[in-house]
Design brief:
Layout: H1 20-39, H2 42-46, E1 53-57, E2 60-64, H3 70-80
Antiparallel strand pairs: 1-2
């Protein structure tokens, strides 16, 4: 069989049956993030993130190496877009 005729199809079996515990724990972190964000509770919000923290949006990668500017940057970005809650 020539290389052109040979094709390999692989399926990522790790996602065939999601780990229910991992999904529940991930959603709990997301819920905590959203609640802290909407409450303006910076310590609780930062506890849900890892640093450096990366955000890819609009074809631009933004990196926060440390927590000190994350919430103020987020609020500046969203308030200029007219949002007050997420």
């Amino acid at each position: 069989m020539s290389p052109e005729e040979r094709r390999t199809t692989s399926i990522d079996q790790t996602q065939a049956q999601p780990d229910k515990t991992a999904v529940a724990e991930s959603l709990a972190v997301l819920d905590g993030f959203m609640a802290a964000l909407n409450a303006g509770n910076e310590p609780a919000l930062l506890a849900t993130l890892h640093f450096p923290h990366y955000r890819l949006a609009g074809g631009r990668m933004r990196v926060w190496d440390q927590h000190r500017a994350y919430l103020s940057d987020f609020l500046a970005r969203t308030y200029t877009q007219g949002r007050r809650r997420t």
